[in-house]
Amino acid sequence: MRKLDTRTIVVASHNAGKIREIADLIGPFGFSAKSAAELDFVEPDETGTTFEENAAIKALASAKASGMPALSDDSGLVIDALDGAPGVYTANWAERPDGTRDFPMAMEKVHNALVERGATEASQRTARFVSVLCLAWPDGHTELFRGEVQGTCVWPPRGTEGFGYDPIFQPDGYATTFGEMSAEEKHGWKPGQSQALSHRARAFKIFVETCLEG
């Protein structure tokens, strides 16, 4: 494993919600970071069929464009009753013909697909959020870190916090959705704590233990 020997990195994302969450996670470690959106980098085509492949595509593109290490996230909602969909196509389910993303529409699409499959009870709507972080260097070296959190898809959506599909995802062991949790509650982890709640926080915890500590 290659250690990160700088606190200056690029956050390889154009997603405002994702950039905000990653900034919240890296802030306590004193990182100086700019996003690919701020640097006006072109978004690479995500042609991979796995979270790992797409995370690497994004991180490598920003690392090579900036000449600095870049940290990306590829994440999505994996629903058992939908045979793993939307999975790596989670963001695509929210796309409108004009290229904008409509997550209320996407959440309704998920609900309707579950109803069509007869998945109306909580026990039939099990799901997990997956996050894969990729740290890439300009020379092409990459490190990958995967985090998952199990839960249930609820309906109707609850809460206005977070972003994306958060209002319909209720993690196991909690009575609230990600959309009803503050950022601190959702991540459930900061330096010095042993537990992490969100998929992104769990992946980030592994990143810290692998590339920053020791």
TrEMBL record:
Active-site residues annotated for this sequence: D74 (proton acceptor)
Assembly: Homodimer.
Cofactor note: Binds 1 Mg(2+) ion per subunit.
Residues involved in substrate binding: S13, H14, N15, A16, G17, K18, S75, F163, G164, Y165, D166, K186, H199, R200
Record gene name: rdgB
Binding site for Mg(2+): D45, D74
Described function: Pyrophosphatase that catalyzes the hydrolysis of nucleoside triphosphates to their monophosphate derivatives, with a high preference for the non-canonical purine nucleotides XTP (xanthosine triphosphate), dITP (deoxyinosine triphosphate) and ITP. Seems to function as a house-cleaning enzyme that removes non-canonical purine nucleotides from the nucleotide pool, thus preventing their incorporation into DNA/RNA and avoiding chromosomal lesions.
PANTHER family, per database record: INOSINE TRIPHOSPHATE PYROPHOSPHATASE, INOSINE TRIPHOSPHATE PYROPHOSPHATASE/HAM1 PROTEIN
Keyword annotations of the record: Hydrolase, Magnesium, Metal-binding, Nucleotide metabolism, Nucleotide-binding
E.C. no: 3.6.1.66
Cofactor: Mg(2+)
Superkingdom per UniProt: Bacteria
Name this protein carries in UniProt: dITP/XTP pyrophosphatase
Record has Hydrolase as a keyword: yes
Pfam families on file: Ham1p_like (PF01725)
Record carries keyword Flavoprotein: no
Recorded family membership: Belongs to the HAM1 NTPase family.
Catalytic activity: dITP + H2O = dIMP + diphosphate + H(+); XTP + H2O = XMP + diphosphate + H(+); ITP + H2O = IMP + diphosphate + H(+)
NCBIfam families, sorted: RdgB/HAM1 family non-canonical purine NTP pyrophosphatase
Matching CDD domains: HAM1 (cd00515)
